Structure formats: C-alpha cells, structure tokens
C-alpha cells in the first residue's frame, strides 16, 4: 500500500490542502500549481463566468483527480511490470 501512487498522490495533496488552510499560502499559489482541474477552470473564461466553485470544491475535485491519477499510474506500472517480467521466469 505504501509503495502505490494511489496512496501517495492524495496524501501529498492533502498536505497541500493543510498548508493552504493554515494561511501560509495567501494567494493560493501552491494550490494552483498542484491542481490540474484548477488550471482548466482558470484557463477558460467561459467556464469561469458561468461556474462559481467554492474553495472546498476545488479541494475535493483535485483530491479526486489525484486519486484517479494514482490509480492510473499504478495500473500502468502493474501492466508494465507484468510485461517485462514474463520473459524472466
């Protein structure tokens, strides 16, 4: 469990959330740099004008993003590991 990306990516982002909630990240720079869904939201003027997402929503959406990304990374790593280990048996 501790060697899996689906564990560590959300844990690291949870640390970013705690850092942001502590008030040390006044302008939400660290939050923005670690949140690809926030990049997409901020890049589109049309979406920003129609959709208002509270800060807690950003936290939840990005935490789910990193969990799904971790699952994807682990799936690719497992598939890659099986492919490379089949000839070594």
Classification by helices and strands: mainly alpha
How many domains?
Answer: 1
Number of helices: 5
What about the largest sheet?
Answer: none
| Quaternary structure of the protein | single chain
**Which residue ranges are poorly predicted, with pLDDT under 50 across at least 5 consecutive positions?**
none
Cα Rg: 17 Å
Q: H/E element string? A: HHHHH
Number of beta-strand segments:
0
Helix % is over 70%
What is the global morphology? globular
How far apart lie the N and C ends?
Answer: 25 Å
What fraction strand? Answer: under 5%
Record keyword descriptors for this entry.
single chain; mainly alpha; 89 residues
Question: Would you mind describing this structure in some detail?
Answer:
The chain crosses the membrane at residues 56-73. Keywords: Membrane, Transmembrane, Transmembrane helix. With 89 residues, the chain is an all-alpha fold. The model has no long low-confidence stretch (mean pLDDT 89). α1 (5-21) runs antiparallel to α5. The protein is 75% helix and 0% strand.
Write the layout of secondary structure elements.
Layout lengths: L4 H17 L7 H5 L2 H8 L1 H6 L4 H31 L4
Short recap of the structure:
This protein has 89 residues and is an all-alpha fold.
